[in-house]
Structure formats: structure tokens, C-alpha cells
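Workshop exercise sheet. Pairs work together: one partner reads the sequence aloud, the other fills in the structure field after running the prediction. Swap roles for the next sheet.
Pair: D.N. / O.F.
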Amino acid sequence: MNASFHAGAGVRLLAAAMLAQLVSLAPALAQDAVDAAAAKKEGKLVWYTSTPVAQAQKIAGAFEKETGIKVEVFRSGGSEVLRRFQSELDARRIVADVMTTSDPAASALLAKKGVFVPFKPKNFDKIPDAAKDKDGNYIAQRLNIMTIYMRGDKVAEADRPRTWDDVTAPKYKGKLVMTDPSYTALQLTVVGMMSKARGWGYYEKLQKNDVMIVRGNQQVSDNIKRGERVIAVGALDSYAAEDRAAGHNIVTVYPSDGTFIIPSPTAIIKGSPSPNAARLFAEFMIGDEAQKVFPADGGYAARADLAPPQGSPPVSQIKVVPVDYEWLEGASGQIKKRFNEIFQ
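Structure field:
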């Protein structure tokens, strides 16, 4: 089973506003109807997603068990998912019925182009405003917390970085690993905002510190567990939480200068082969069973009424880095180009 998804929010978010939206509930809204009989008659759907493999499999499997509708999953990094979808869109060959990614800026841009089907399913009101399009063009599946994490047995407490700038210190040379923004949409947001705030000199310092670049967050996790590198920079913390639960000595640092909280939007594709199955699956995605998969695996559900993963702080206690998604919409190509120039 494969999987991949992309989503976005083209609004400028201030940290305080983002925080308030993430912890508050919108007024209850009437839900859009779903024709379950028509969905079951279609019998299958195609889901493009960047959801971590194990979680994507659990969600797809649970949906298949409940409805009898087969889910064909293409799973890859968020940027890769978007490239594939955009290529098919340009060729006027719609394959995906539902897409989940971790690039709110790209989702907002696609929504403006009319690529998605507006849909407000059951539990739409339980998704924070900052994590969805007000018209229902995309709805967050989960929240991604991007932190610094490390091997607790390899990095003494006194030596652990506490801010984003700390990892550029010479003492960390040869100890760092991070993902590639050309493959992982989450890292595209991190790199974009870090370079905007600090300049590209920040990444030039990391390059001089011999940071290792890998494709995705699973590779970061594997690398840290093997001890090839011992500190992950701007990495998806659900992998760290999952590794801790499996008995690995992994320590998370929520940088004192702020943590990135990035929604992973889900959208229904206009003109897709299975429109009714797509709506049923999109509704299932923010239902109780699917949403509880994320905190159970160390991640954060999109719904504000669900608790954080065990051992992790609630969103209200995390200092949030503001993300300018409007700026990211137009800057993503240049961000990838400059990053590759530095690290290749």
C-alpha cells in the first residue's frame, strides 16, 4: 500500500493568532451530505498522501473495513506528491480522488485555481480555523510539529541545542541530519521561513557544519537510531515520539525561539473518478477513528477536541513560529533552488 497528500492555507498567520485558532473551536456548522450508497457503488478511490506510511495504512485499512471501499494509496514526500499531481493535472488526466500533503501554501494556490471540491463534512467545526479553508476546499488531517530532536545517550543535557541558531555552533559539526525541502513539503516551510527570517547565511553555516541531507523524515529517524548522526534539525516530531515509545533514547527540544506547527491539508479533487467515495473518505479522515490514529502514534490530531500524544505538550503550551503562507506560495521554487545550490 502506498500513500501521499498535499494541502495548504494561503493566509498570513501571526503566532498569537495561530495559537488561538489552534486551541479554539468554531461554531457548529451544518455538514454537507455524503451519498454512501453511491460511494460504495464506485467501490474504490485513489489517495495521494504524504502521511507517514504506518498511519496512512491504518487509516486506509480502517476505511476499507468500515465501508468495503478499496483505497489505492500513493505515498511519498509532500513535494513529490505535488509534483506528480501537478503533472497529471497539466496533462488533464485526473487520477487522484483525494490528496493529503503538508504544504498549506500549495493547497491554497490550487484552491484559488478551482482544483478542489468545497466540502464541509461532519466534524468540520472541530478543525481550527488556521488548519482549514473557510469554504472547505481543504481540511487539515493532522498537525505537524517540527522540532529539534536527538539521541539522549549521545548528547549530554548541558550540550543540547536550545534554539535554532544553536545548531550552527562548531561543536555540532558532523552530528546533524535534516530533510530535503525538494522532497518534503514540511521542510520547505521550515527552510523558507528560516531563510526569510535569518537569511541564507544560516544554511551556509549548517553546510559548513557538515549537516547530512536525507530525503524524508523516516530516513532522519533511522539515521538517528543508528547513531550515524545524533541531532535532527527541523524534523517531524511524531517520529521521535514513536521511537521513544519503542524504547529508543530520543529527546525532543522545542526551541525557545519557537516551533513550527504545520497543518497537513486534505482535499477532494475536482473531476476525479470516484467523487462520492472521495467525499466519504474525506469525512472519515476527520472522524474519531482516523483522528485518534495520530496521537496514538505520537503525532497531533487536527481536531482541537482531541488530546495531544502522551508525553507531549498541548499546542497551547508550544511557542509557535509564524508562517507566511502567502509569501511561500510564490517563493517555493526559489527556496528549493537556493537550498540545492548550498548543499550540492
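Discussion prompt: The radius of gyration is 19 Å. What would you look at next?
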